[in-house]
Structure formats: structure tokens, C-alpha cells
Amino acid sequence: MPDTLQPGGAPATTRPGQERFVSDVDETGLGAVDAVADESAPASMWGEAWKQLRRRPMFWIAALLILAAVALAVAPGLFTRTDPRFCELSNSLAPASAGHPFGFDKQGCDIYARTVYGARASVSVGVLTTLLVVMVGSLIGAIAGYFGGWFDTLLSRVTDIFFAVPFMLAAIVVMSMFKSHRSVFTVVLVLGIFGWPQIARITRGAVMSVKNDEFVTASTALGAGRWATMFRHILPNASAPIIVTATVSLGSYIVTEATMSFLGIGLPATIVSWGADISAAQSSLRNAPGILFYPAGALALTVLGFIMMGDVVRDALDPKTRK
Known about the structure:
It holds the Pfam family OppC_N. Its main location: membrane. The chain is mainly α. Helix content is 63%, strand content 2%. It is built from 13 helices and two strands.
């Protein structure tokens, strides 16, 4: 039975049931817990973000919605073989039947085929407008934030001027001038002209927050030029808010295109789009509400997917939201 020492140094016998046993460190497993894997590289910002994203059900739901919209836009022939422009008045407002699950609209066109092919125009406008806005806005914002001085003053005032113009109103006014030359690229150009200020302002703030960090100073000390430093080091580290804003804005551009097509100043009638189908369905809303429901539902789900993706990406890239 183990002995202990009293304060005076005299040994004392431990009573039965009060023995103390100390296990060896190798038997407790604490060594494995405290061990550090030196060969493992530290996770990057995008690696940590991916760990956060794949654990969230909202990310997978948004990804499925976006993949479905992209698949419809890229390969609509995989989902239907019906020509969306083939219409017969004899089928006007006919209910669903074999091969026509959504029925027919007032002009006798297959609603399912038009819903499938309508994704191409809407998604194309959203993606191309977002790319144009990101390229223009990121460049202007990065130059203003990194170089400062009169660059920042001039570009910031130009950005404020565009901010003062209502986005939707300006797009409607300019598109009304292209009645005979309307196309996907026309809509993209008009939306891009008035959509870049938001990205520019966000990029400027992000660049100003990182341009004085140590890695920028090290890059300059090693002889890298200011333009090389901006494109190689500053913009990649300031890209998180740009990506989040662009993802959310993509859905907004799809809605804007649908709104202009609904008003008759967006895409021409020869191009199948959800906005044009929603506009054509309002005359038959009481008799056949499904004509409006299907293109409007496809539009809503697509926009919802991009907005949800922007939310989860923002939470994953923001360290303050990580638990």
C-alpha cells in the first residue's frame, strides 16, 4: 500500500479506498492528442471556406438549383425535343398531355419547351453581365484604392455619378433607344454600363484594407512593380467580397432582364425568355394561371439559387461567422 508524507516528513499510511494511481502518459493517449503533424500544410482561405460550405445543406440546395439552370441553358435539347417557337392555335390553352407536361399557352406553344429554352437567354444575360461588371468594376476600384491620390478622387467621383442614376430607370431608357437592334449582347452591355459602380466601390474598400499588409511590403521590397503587386497579390486577397457580391448580383441581373422583357423593351420576341413568357401570360391569368406559374417559378428558383449561394459563400469567407 503506498505511503505519503505528512507535513512534518513522517510517513503516513493511506487508508483503504483512498489510494491514488497515476497512469503513464503513454497509456492515457495524451501524446497523440498533443502531437502536431509537421508535414501537413496550413489550410488556405479557400480550403477553410470549402470545409464550411460542404457542411451546410443550403450550399448543396443552391448548387443543385444553379446546376439545373445552367444545364437547361447549355443543353436544352437534353430535356425536350419540342421546338419552343412551333405554335398551333388549335392547341390554345390546351391542358397537359403526353409529351406536353405543362400544357399550351394562348398561342398554342408548348409551355414546357418554352420554359426550358427560356433559361438560355436569362442565364446568359446574368452570367455575361456579371463578368463584364466584375472586370470593369474590379479594375476601376483596384486602381482607385491602391494608387490613391487624384486617381482615387477622379474615379470615386465618376462612380458617384453613376450611383446617382437609378439602375433600372437608366437601363429602361437606354434600351428604348435600341428597338431595332435588341439582342442578348445589347442587354448585357446596357446592364454592364450601369452595374459596375457597386463592384468598384466594394473592390476599392477591400483593396484599401489589404494594401498596407506585410505581404504587399515584401512584394515591393523584392522588386515587384506596382501593377504586378496589385494583380498578383492585392486583388487575389481582396477577391472574397467581390465574389460574394457578384454571385448575388447575378440573380439581380436575371430579374432585371426579365423585367425589361416583361415591359417589352428587353429581348425581342424572337428570343425565348422567361420575362417575355410572363408578359404574354398575363392576358390569360384568370383562365390558365399555369401559363404564368411555370416561367415565373423557373425564374424564381434560379434567382433563389444564386442568392442562397451568395449568402453561404459570404458566411464561409467571413471568419467572424465561423463557429
